[in-house]
């Protein structure tokens, strides 16, 4: 076991280094990744790379690259991406950069009971899987939109499926927090960041094609997506998800306002 996997397997804290600079110069049309381009478990970042807001090869990504891309592509303010960007540095061997593939490291951000990927112990935890995505695709029947209620129900069903099939399932408050924020992210970037209502068509294209549905009428949110919008939204999703904690420890305090156990 090397030092990094030891670090990730313990209930310990991590110190990471932030950096600053810029990335740009692209017309942001959609281009599917080529054979040498890296992609990973995050549909949000894969989409930004497919549109050139992140390096199209999926490599050499630093904290600033992420913050700029999230702002330019989705109107997300730095505060809602900083934590994920910093934690992701732990997934690579380079101290200052990571690739979109690196971040599939199980137990860093990557978790079980994902809404579009298979659990690490059961298969490919990085690639989109239509079978897994069926739960989300079939949610909120009779409505053309997903919302915080349906997102919570999807999380409940996906966790139940993992608990039934994966003896290695990890379900602590850390995973619950991350999963709920990710749900708030897809509702916000593909829908209305204030109401959490997102057109199914846009969300489905985002996950299945990792493409911005501009041709279908999607626009970058005029409302900035920040802690004031994401906070209340992920709590509504949590309330609708009927969650109960499993075993395991919250290995790192996920930021200065992370209450760790008391949500
Ligand atoms: C830029 C805006 C972002 C959006 C819209 C977004 C959206 C999402 C969504 C919806 C998922 C859930 C996928 C699933 O459960 O199948 C996800 C997963 C993930 N995201 Fe992001 N994300 C964003 C930023 C980030 C950042 C900044 C990082 C780290 C640098 C990150 C890393 C991950 C990872 C590692 C996963 C996999 C978690 C898992 O399912 O196990 N994301 N993201
Ligand atoms: C972050 O990455 C960008 C794009 O590759 C680069 O221009 C910048 O110098 C990097 N910043 C740091 C602090 O390494
Ligand atoms: C699942 O857990 C068992 C028991 O802890 C362990 O031996 C095995 O390596 C784990 N498998 C995976 C894929 O994590
Ligand atoms: C997708 O997930 C299903 C259900 O877990 C699994 O049977 C199937 O092998 C996965 N497909 C791929 C391509 O990994
Ligand atoms: C989500 O949509 C369903 C179906 O239209 C509706 O019953 C539910 O109240 C909605 N949830 C929210 C939070 O608006
Ligand atoms: C989020 O953006 C809104 C609108 O610009 C602003 O009023 C609010 O203070 C911001 N919240 C945070 C946490 O930055
Ligand atoms: C909530 O979870 C509990 C325990 O897992 C279960 O018994 C109950 O049926 C669930 N309720 C809903 C509405 O899903």
Automatic annotation (TrEMBL):
Top-level taxon of the source organism: Eukaryota
Protein name: Heme haloperoxidase family profile domain-containing protein
Family of this protein: Belongs to the chloroperoxidase family.
Key word Heme present: yes
Annotated source species: Marasmiellus scandens
Gene3D superfamilies assigned: Chloroperoxidase-like
Ranges where the Heme haloperoxidase family profile domain occurs: 26-232
Required cofactor(s): heme b
Signal peptide: 1-18
Alphabetical UniProt keywords: Heme, Iron, Metal-binding, Oxidoreductase, Peroxidase, Signal
Classification via PROSITE patterns: HEME_HALOPEROXIDASE
């Amino acid at each position: 076991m090397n030092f990094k996997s030891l670090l990730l397997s313990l209930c310990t804290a991590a110190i990471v280094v932030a950096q600053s600079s810029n990335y740009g110069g692209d017309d942001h049309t959609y281009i599917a990744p080529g054979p040498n381009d890296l992609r990973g478990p995050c549909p949000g970042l894969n989409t930004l790379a497919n549109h050139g807001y992140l390096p199209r090869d999926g490599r050499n990504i630093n904290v600033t690259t992420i913050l700029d891309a999230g702002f330019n592509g989705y109107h997300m303010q730095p505060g809602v991406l900083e934590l994920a960007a910093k934690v992701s540095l732990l997934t690579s061997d380079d101290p200052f950069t990571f690739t979109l593939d690196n971040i599939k490291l199980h137990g860093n951000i990557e978790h079980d009971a994902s809404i579009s990927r298979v659990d690490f112990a059961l298969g490919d935890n990085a690639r989109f899987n239509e079978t897994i995505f069926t739960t989300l695709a079939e949610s909120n029947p009779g409505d053309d939109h997903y919302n915080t209620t349906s997102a919570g129900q999807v999380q409940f069903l996906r966790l139940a499926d993992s608990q039934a099939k994966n003896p290695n399932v990890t379900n602590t408050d850390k995973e619950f927090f991350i999963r709920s924020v990710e749900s708030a992210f897809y509702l916000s970037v593909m829908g209305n960041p204030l109401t959490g209502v997102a057109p199914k068509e846009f969300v489905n294209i985002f996950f299945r094609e990792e493409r911005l549905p501009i041709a279908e009428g999607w626009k970058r949110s005029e409302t900035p997506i920040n802690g004031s919008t994401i906070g209340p939204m992920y709590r509504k999703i949590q309330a609708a998800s009927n969650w109960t904690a499993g075993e395991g420890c919250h290995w790192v305090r996920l930021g200065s306002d992370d209450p760790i156990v008391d949500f």
